[in-house]
Amino acid sequence: MKMEQRSFIIKGNICYTKTMGCLDVADQAYLVCEAGVCQGVFPVLPSRFKGLPMIDYKEDLVIPGMVDLHVHAPQYPFRGLGMDLELMEWLQAHTFPEESRYADLAYAKDAYETFVRDLQKSVTTRAVVFGTVHTPATELLMGMLDACGLVTYVGKVNMDQNCPDSLQDGGVQEALAQTAAWLQATLGKYRHTYPVLTPRFAPACSGQMLEGLGKLQKEYGVPVQSHLSENLSEIALVTSLFPWASCYGDVYTHYGLFGGAAKTVMAHCVYSSDREVKQIKENGVYVAHCPQSNTNLSSGIAPIRKYLDRGVAVGLGTDIAGGATLSMLRCITDAVGVSKLYWRLVDQQDKPLSMEEAFYLATKGGGAFFGNVGSFEEGYELDALVLDDREISSTRQLSTKERLERYLYLAQEGGRLVAKYVAGAPVLL
């Protein structure tokens, strides 16, 4: 199929979700895409589509692309390191020194080329990405991501306290001026990449910085990403810095950076209070659940079942380099695993996530941040993955659903990503 062709039919063993907890399976079915948009999944191809070119993937699995709602591109070089530390110490020992290196554009180019290449080859089709405080490096990253064919939001980080001087971007007014200039330069510049306002987290931002970012959000109408209630030491620091706030979320809400008109994703929410969860729900804030990171940095277990029961929008994030891998497959299985620990050790009223529920979070749950994304329902942008599981050893005859579950856990034992589509366009692997 030509790279520019965005109207076609995929035949294969198709799995996707329409509703939480329910997996739709269609063996040897037809997935129809017109102009990058799904027209549906059909057991028999309707005659009106018979003029479209068809790719027959035979026995391969066909699933929606996966959405990483929270990943730090500049942390990719030190993934898997410093896992003996908690969040605040880990930031000082590893994150801030590494991110300082992105003032050197040559270093940024080498590091981001590796990150983008590996993300392109992964099962991720869309991502919400942190950059650094450095405008040139952030724009470099945006251009690389745009060229690779994935759809992404990328943020130039802002912070002005509780971090090295080298990452404070010349003070509040200078940082805000640079952020405004960055927004002006990047809004509408790319086909697939968009800017997102990025206060690192409340402890690293003064009230003046947050106020200025809130004004920029209103002026430019861009989304917001940050961190929320990840770690007990972090929360204690927020309480000391903003004693007037009844909860961590109050800080962002006060400055207009917490949902409503500002489409917002907040990572972690491990310790969100009932008041904070109410704010999250009422403001339409997305929670990016990052189970591997929360384990590696000893942060805790986010009560995702409670959030889902209360109607909170939830997706998954790898949180490189708190998480050690870009694999959203691993993210799905980790989400299931930690939910079992929460149920057994914390609250036996909160039943664990099923495979189908975690799969939903990685596809349609996180995809909603981008619009109609993450499913093969009619009207959804066609993001798709084609998976070959023939080299994963087994003597059992498995159903398509069982093959998908096995692939989530055992892809590294012989699974192969055959093809990847984003908004109907094939991505080079």
Please give a structural write-up.
The structure is a single chain. With 429 residues, this protein is α/β, with parallel strands linked by helices. 36% of the residues lie in helices and 23% in strands. The strands form 4 sheets. Strands 3-2-1-4-15-16-17 form a 7-stranded mixed β-sheet. A hairpin with a 2-residue loop joins strand 1 and strand 2 (22-34). Helix 2 (105-121) runs parallel beside helix 3, helix 4 (172-186) packs parallel to helix 5 and helix 11 (328-345) packs across helix 12 (355-367). The chain is globular. The model has no long low-confidence stretch (mean pLDDT 97).
Task: Give the SSE map.
Layout lengths: L7 E12 L2 E13 L2 E6 L11 E11 L1 E7 L14 H14 L4 H17 L2 E7 L4 H14 L2 E5 L1 E2 L13 H15 L6 E3 L2 E2 L7 H14 L3 E5 L3 H10 L6 H7 L9 E5 L5 H10 L2 E4 L1 H6 L7 H6 L3 E4 L11 H18 L9 H13 L16 E5 L11 H11 L5 E7 L2 E2 L3
Parallel strand pairs: 1-4, 5-6, 6-7, 7-9, 8-10, 11-12, 12-13, 13-14
Antiparallel strand pairs: 1-2, 2-3, 4-15, 15-16, 16-17
Helix pairs in contact: 2-3, 4-5, 11-12
